[in-house]
Amino acid sequence: MSFLINKIYKYLGKHPHYNSAIHAISGLGIGIIISRPYVANPVKWGVLLIVIGIVGHLYPYFVGKK
Questions:
Q1: Per-residue pLDDT of the chain (66 residues; tens, 9 = 90+)
Q2: How far is 3 from 8, CA to CA, in rounded Å?
Q3: Do the beta carbons of residue 42 and residue 36 sit within 8 Å?
Q4: Are the beta carbons of 26 and 53 closer than 8 angstroms?
Q5: CA-CA-CA-CA dihedral for 29, 34, 36, 42, to nearest 10
Q6: For helices 42-63 and 2-14, what crossing angle results, to 10°?
Q7: DSSP 8-state symbol, 30
Q8: C-beta atoms surrounding 23 within 10 Å
Q9: Rounded to the nearest 5 degrees, what angle is found at the Cα of 44, between the Cα atoms of 8 and 27?
Q10: Residues 6+ apart with CB under 8 A from 7
Q11: What is the dihedral of CA 2, 15, 59, 8, to 10 degrees?
């Protein structure tokens, strides 16, 4: 498990723009779910953005050098 985490950390450390983008997308998803009374279709959009953030964190594992 630590190999997976270290590989992801290394990739995110070398690609700061990608790192900030996936964290911003995840944060938007959380923010939309928190502010659900003010946004139309909040659960769909919030969950979609959070899933994109999670997949974005797993992407370096599958694409990074073996």
A1: 788 888 888 888 999 999 999 999 999 999 988 887 766 678 888 899 999 999 998 888 888 665
A2: 9
A3: yes
A4: yes
A5: 20
A6: 100
A7: H
A8: 14
A9: 40
A10: 60, 61, 64
A11: 0
**Cβ atoms of 39 and 31 closer than 8 Å:** no
pLDDT at 39 (0 to 100) = 64
Tokens of 59: 């992407």
Residue 64 CA to chain centroid, in angstroms?
17
Contact 11, 66 (CB under 8 A): no
Helix residue ranges per DSSP H, 1-66: 2-14, 16-34, 42-63
d(CA 26, CA 32): 10
Give the position of tokens 């779910």. 33
